[in-house]
UniProtKB/TrEMBL annotation:
One of its GO terms (molecular function) is nucleic acid binding. It comes from Sesamum latifolium. This is RNase H type-1 domain-containing protein. InterPro entries: RNaseH-like_sf (IPR012337), RNaseH_domain (IPR002156), RNaseH_sf (IPR036397). It holds the Pfam family RVT_3. Residues 1-115 form the RNase H type-1 domain. Gene3D superfamilies: Ribonuclease H-like superfamily/Ribonuclease H (3.30.420.10).
Amino acid sequence: MGSGAGIVIENPQGDKFEYAIKLEYPSSNNEAEYEAFLAGGELALAAGAKKVIIYSDSQLVVNQVQGSYEARDEKIAMYFAKVKNLLEKFEEAFVVKISRVNNSAADQLARLASSMAAIRTRRITFISSDMAAIEEQEEIMCTGPTPFS
């Protein structure tokens, strides 16, 4: 089935950007946590962030980054080295451990991503509706291609 990684980035203005990443290869939960950390950091860099506070509910990742734990596993040590390299690209970077309860948005995104089997081969449109189909709705004119054209 594969794992998923969830990322929530909040800018200084309070705008939130959420990402669900499907990991289409075998990975442990700790590897998925590192993948989320790295992807979130790279997204923050791409957005021009110079200072970041990275919150994670992974005790292993946070303690390794803060120097309390060693990265003994070869694969985890490779992730840890990439994280150290990434953090050096910021003027300031803080890594903070938070509870799973306080990280529920990212966990929901990770679960969403991991539940999507073979997502690469599918074309999915996500639609959010704030009104029941039986309620009166405003008519909208479509000018581009639709699934029915």
